[in-house]
Amino acid sequence: MAGNSSKRGRQTVRDMVLSMAAVGVVVVVAYFSIPSADGKGGVHAVPYQVELASAKRAAPYPLLGPDRLPDGWTATSVTYGRNDDSRAAWHLGMSTASGQYAAVEQADGKSEDVVRRNVPGAQPDGTATVAGQEWQRVQGDHYRGLVRPAGETGTTVLTGTASYEELAQLAETLK
């Protein structure tokens, strides 16, 4: 009789494992097949115009932001305030039409500090002229960027996984 009890216990454990596997398959299929509520593959859009207007009044440098995003781009994060270095920092993160990440990052302080903070491992990678303005190109460990001074007191970095062409497209929208 002890053998039957042990056999039944193994069968019960096997049935539980098979049931859990079946439920897991259903969950995975549902996760990847049910569309997101916003219809944009899970990208959550945030409004940024009010924050941009407020930040422009408060910033100690000419703060830049897009008057409107390029077609297919979505703003996903926006902040203005003091960063860890107590610098006035502006951030606007976006998802590009190709699904890459791009951001406008501005802060006062030394240009090399602003670049290092926003494009870790940045190395010079030439220049780009966008809308008649010269931008320095940098390539980092994971991100690339376009960099230019924001007046005499700040630095603008357009950064992300987006291509240089997409970052240039973003630069064209800045006001």
Describe this structure as you would to a colleague.
Keywords: Membrane, Transmembrane, Transmembrane helix. This is DUF4245 domain-containing protein. The chain crosses the membrane at residues 12-34. Pfam families: DUF4245. The protein is of the alpha+beta class and 175 residues long. It is 33% helix and 30% strand. It has four helices and seven strands; from the N terminus they run ααβββαββββα. The chain has helices at residues 2-33, 49-58, 111-118, 164-171; strands at 74-82, 88-95, 101-108, 123-130, 133-139, 144-149, 154-160. Strands 1-2-3-7-6-5-4 form a seven-stranded antiparallel β-sheet, sandwiched between helices. The longest helix is centred in the first third of the chain and has 32 residues, at 2-33. The protein is elongated and about 85 Å long. Mean pLDDT is 85; it is low at 25-40.
Strand and helix layout:
Layout: H1 2-33, H2 49-58, E1 74-82, E2 88-95, E3 101-108, H3 111-118, E4 123-130, E5 133-139, E6 144-149, E7 154-160, H4 164-171
Antiparallel strand pairs: 1-2, 2-3, 3-7, 4-5, 5-6, 6-7
